[in-house]
Write a structure and sequence with these properties.
InterPro entries: Dihydroneopterin_aldolase, FolB_dom, GTP-CH-I_C/QueF
CATH class: Alpha Beta
GO molecular function: dihydroneopterin aldolase activity
Number of domains: 1
Shape: elongated
Organism: Allopusillimonas soli
CATH superfamily: GTP cyclohydrolase I, C-terminal domain/NADPH-dependent 7-cyano-7-deazaguanine reductase, N-terminal domain
Family: Belongs to the DHNA family.
Strand order of the largest sheet: 1-2-3-4
Number of helices: 3
CATH topology: GTP Cyclohydrolase I, domain 2
Order of helices and strands: EHEHHEE
Largest sheet: 4 strands, antiparallel
Strand content: 35-45%
Structural class: alpha+beta
Pfam family, one: FolB
């Protein structure tokens, strides 16, 4: 079966994440890079969004999962996002999520975690 890759590059949002005192008091910026390999089950019909995976829904799921509650660790947040995507989007065969904190250190552009998983 063929696949199509949907990707997001530096989706920016503010989230409540971290274990340090200042992280517990305020949101901080996150960037999400994501790739989704999706089963292609029918030809694309340019007049019918139902013939493709609507990436607005993927974006909504990622943003919602990252902003719904405080999370202590980026590792936990990545695992939650991956689990949600695989549970809600059966056409997704493989997902790779990279979540980074661009403001964590002054001497680098960002620090983050990446998780890659195949659907079962």
């Amino acid at each position: 079966m063929s696949t199509r890759r949907v990707f997001f590059s530096q989706l920016a949002l503010d989230a409540r994440i971290g274990i340090l005192e200042h992280e517990l008091r305020a949101t901080q910026p996150l960037h999400i890079d994501a790739e989704f390999d999706v089963d292609v089950t029918e030809p694309v019909n340019d007049q019918n969004i139902q013939t493709v995976l609507d990436y607005r829904q993927l974006r909504h799921a990622m943003v919602d999962e990252c902003t719904r509650a405080h999370v202590n660790l980026l590792e936990t947040l990545c695992e939650r996002v991956v689990a949600r995507i695989l549970a809600e989007f059966p056409a997704v065969r493989q997902v790779k999520i990279r979540i980074s904190k661009p403001s964590a250190f002054s001497d680098c552009a960002a620090v983050g975690i990446e998780v890659q998983r195949n659907a079962s």
